[in-house]
Amino acid sequence: MFTAYKNLPNNSRVWIYQSDREFNNKEVELIKEESEDFINQWTRHGDDLKGSFTIKYNHFLVLAVDESYNNISGCSIDSSVRFIQQLQNKLQLDLINKMNISFKDNNNINILKLSDFQRFIKEEKITPETIVFNNMINTKYGFENNWEVSIMQSWHKRFFVKVE
After folding, report:
1. Long-range contacts, 5-10 (Cβ 8 Å, 24+)
2. Which residue among 19, 37, 45, 94 is least packed, with the fewest CB closer than 10 Å?
3. 29: exposed, middle or buried (C-beta count within 10 Å: 0-12, 13-18, 19+)?
4. CA R_g for the chain
5. CB neighbours (10 Å) of residue 104?
6. pLDDT by residue (tens digit) across 97-144?
7. Other beta carbons less than 10 A from residue 58's beta carbon
8. pLDDT tens for residues 39-89?
9. What CA–CA distance (Å, rounded) separates 54 from 69?
10. 3-state secondary structure the chain
């Protein structure tokens, strides 16, 4: 059962899917339509799930479920992953690669392979103040308040090597 993202409680569970490239306007419309359709039929053992989605910076698709309405199950999570895989195939992009790291450079969103991210840190192209996206966040509150943070406030700090 689809509901507006803003109407979900802060403890709603979220899954953040990062694209390896920016969505174009046509793709954003398709993602919105297909995400709403998926959420409207998303169930847990036959019971409706109350969910939503949001798209951020034309790079991130966030699925969300209000678990105070109905808890999500492993099968329900599996069906959402299948939905994401179908979307990937249709749009010819990668939404599941956890080895890509995203960060902001002014208003630009950059996606790098982990090895390139580490190299950028060593070359000081990325600083401790660089804003990164913590896609490991799993609640709406965390997403709204702790998703975009400096490297030193995220799990990414383990890659930061201070060059003397």
Report:
1. 5/52, 5/53, 5/54, 5/62, 5/64, 7/52, 8/50, 8/51, 8/52, 8/64, 8/66, 8/140, 9/66, 9/68, 9/140, 10/139, 10/140, 10/141, 10/144
2. 45
3. exposed
4. 17
5. 14
6. 888 999 998 889 999 999 999 999 989 899 899 999 999 999 999 999
7. 16
8. 998 876 667 889 999 999 999 999 999 987 777 777 888 889 999 999 999
9. 19
10. CECCHHHCCCCCEEEEEECCCCCCHHHHHHHHHHHHHHHHHCEECCEECCEEEEEECCCEEEEEECCCCCCCCHHHHHHHHHHHHHHHHHHCCCCCCCCEEEEEECCEEEEEEHHHHHHHHHCCCCCCCCEEECCCCCEHHHHHHHCEEEHHHCHHHHHCCCCC
Token pair of 145 as six digits: 């308040």
For the record, the structure tokens of 99 come out as 């080895």
